Amino acid sequence: MSQVLIRSPQHCARRGFSIDKRHKKLLLAFLTTLTSFVALVILVWLILHPAKPQFTIKEADIDQLNISSPCLNSSIQLTLLAENPNGKVGIYYDDLQAYAAYRGQQITVGSTLPPFYQGYQHSDLLTASLVGNGLPVADSLGYQVERDQTAGKLALSIKLNGQLRWKVGTWVSRKNMLNVNCVVVMAFQPGALVTPLSSKQGSRCSTSI
Description:
Elements: H1 9-14, H2 21-48, E1 54-68, E2 71-83, E3 90-102, E4 105-106, E5 111-113, E6 116-118, E7 123-136, H3 141-151, E8 153-168, E9 171-172, E10 176-187, E11 197-199, E12 203-204, E13 206-208
Protein name: Late embryogenesis abundant protein LEA-2 subgroup domain-containing protein
Domain Late embryogenesis abundant protein LEA-2 subgroup: 79-181
Subcellular location: Membrane
């Protein structure tokens, strides 16, 4: 006669997945450490709450701006001041590219700026040569330049796009998108040639992150 083994419900429950006490302690210690670290990072971030960097156009020189519809040739020399207003937060700048636009149309190709680190309450001068050769433009652009020449003012938009990372102590944040928009207004004498034009006024830029 064969034996029939009958197991109780309590015995079946004991066969399920279980974690011994030693592993439970290790898991609890890991979760506690992780939670404490995340809470510390959030607390530091809330206390410091870094302000956005500030950018100012120090000088912009148009060496060339020739429009022969439907193409345009341009050359602009740019000097930009970057300032970190934070007293306890550094900034890493990555993948920076600058270009010029006129009346909503891009008139130079993107110029790559080298990455750099900016310390607390530090400022740096950035220089770039913005060039556009044979760029296609709308037929109306030449007419708009003539209108601005008659009005005596030429307004250019200088764009700076890239990424930044905040640095607090040894902690560095993930990359954040950086978009800077500057407007440069240049005197444009009626009857004068389109080039050269120069602006040395400190035009403050808008910054979004």
